[in-house]
C-alpha cells in the first residue's frame, strides 16, 4: 500500500514565510493549504487557498480538523500547535522552532503566563522583529520536518 505524501497546512493570516514554504513544497511535490480569513494572493499550482469565515479560531479549526498524521502545520499559534500534535501532525513556528509533545506543555504554560502579565500591565507584549536568521532557521527546520515526514510515510 502506497501512502500519499504529507501536506503542509499554513496558518496564513500573519505567516511571514509563505514564499519559503512554497519553495520547499515545490522541491518535494507537496500540497500546501494556505488557510486564512481573507484571500491571500500566492499563485502556485501546489497551493490551495482556503478562505474560512471571519471569526476567532476559524482558520485554526479548519486546520485542526483536516490535518492528518505526518502532515506539517506552520503556525505561531500555540493552542493550534497543540491541537495538531494531538492528531499526530508535525508543527513548526515561522522562526523554525518545532513544537513537539515534549515541549508543548511548557509552551502553553508560558503563553498563559505572558497573557496574565499583559492583563496586569507587567508586560507590554513586545514581539521581536523577524530576522533573516529566523527565515534561514525556518527553511532548515521545514526541510528537516519534510524529510522526517517522508521517511515516516
Q: What would you say the CATH architecture is?
A: 3-Layer(aba) Sandwich
Distance separating the two termini: 11 Å
Largest beta sheet: strand ordering: 3-2-1-4-5-6
What proportion strand?
Answer: 5-15%
Largest sheet: 6 strands, mixed
Mean pLDDT: 88
Helices and strands, in N-to-C order?
EHEEHEHEEHH
Task: Spell out the blueprint of helices and strands.
Blueprint: E1 8-11, H1 18-28, E2 32-36, E3 47-51, H2 58-66, E4 72-74, H3 78-86, E5 90-92, E6 98-99, H4 104-119, H5 132-152
Parallel strand pairs: 1-2, 1-4, 2-3, 4-5
Antiparallel strand pairs: 5-6
Helix pairs in contact: 1-5, 3-4
Descriptive terms for the model:
Rossmann fold, globular, single chain, 153 residues, 6 strands, alpha/beta, 14% strand, six-stranded mixed β-sheet, 5 helices
Structural description of this entry:
With 153 residues, the protein is of the alpha/beta class. It has one domain (8-152): Rossmann fold, CATH 3.40.50. Helix content is 43%, strand content 14%. The protein is built from five helices and six strands. Strands 3-2-1-4-5-6 form a six-stranded mixed beta sheet, with helices on both faces. α1 packs parallel to α5 (132-152) and α3 packs antiparallel against α4 (104-119). The radius of gyration is 16 Å and the shape is globular.
